[in-house]
Amino acid sequence: MHDLLNVFMCTGFTRDTGQYFMKASPVCPGDFLKFFAEIDLLGALSACPGGDCSAEHSSDAEVCHPLLVEVYEPKEPPRDWVSPPRNGYRGRHGP
Fold first, then answer.
1. To the nearest 5 percent, what fractions of the chain are helix, strand and coil?
2. Separation of first and last alpha carbons in the chain
3. Is there a contact between 26 and 56 (Cβ–Cβ < 8 Å)?
4. Residue 79: what pLDDT?
5. CB 22 within 8 A of CB 10
6. 27-60: b (≥16 Cβ within 10 Å) or e
7. Does the global pTM surpass 0.70?
8. Do 58 and 49 touch, CB atoms closer than 8 A?
9. Comparing C-alpha atoms, which of 45, 63, 62 is closest to residue 7?
10. pLDDT number for residue 6
11. Distance from CA of residue 35 to its chain's centroid?
């Protein structure tokens, strides 16, 4: 399974017209996210190449900022954590 988790871009749809909007991100230097992976995973990080899209989308004049990813392996699993069971998917679609 793959999915997108958009965490630093502030977007949405207006209530009255349903139009898509973008606003400046409220993220500040030093803000971070912390995840615990219960199974092996492959992750990728991507930043919008247009910089801050709140004023103008995909502007070559916008300043982009670096992002940092750190991956740690815990010395021991969290207390009371139980590894999830193996998925029963057999590689076929449908019954």
1. 0, 10, 90
2. 19
3. no
4. 92
5. yes
6. eeeeeeeeeeeeeeeeeeeeebeebbbeeeeeee
7. no
8. yes
9. 45
10. 76
11. 11
